[in-house]
């Protein structure tokens, strides 16, 4: 009796497969693509935004290095400023390592709790 049920299920599944395959029918080829549409007109530009706040003024009597036109520093002036900055004593490797750990995870170096964010 079990063999008959297996045969019946096999015949029904084969018949269902053939019916579904016959219903699908042939599909036609895809047509050619139409031309692209025209580009629309450009939109208008919005109004200009408000001016930002002024920066903090320098301390009285201090001026930055000015170039020939008074607006920017020359390469020679920049080189001189770098030499002056590097003229002091070099920090020890211990101080450099401490600074690096402070920059990376300051709360770990200071044995504090980590920030929430």
What tags apply to this protein structure?
3 helices, single chain, 117 residues, mainly alpha
Mean pLDDT over the residues: 79
Q: What are the secondary-structure elements, in order, as H or E? A: HHH
Low confidence ranges:
none
Summed up, the helix count is 3
What gross morphology would you assign? elongated
Sum this structure up briefly.
This protein is mainly α and 117 residues long. The protein is 44% helix and 0% strand.
Structure description:
Helix content is 44%, strand content 0%. The protein has three helices and no strands. The protein has helices spanning 2-24, 75-86, 93-109.
SSE topology:
Blueprint: H1 2-24, H2 75-86, H3 93-109
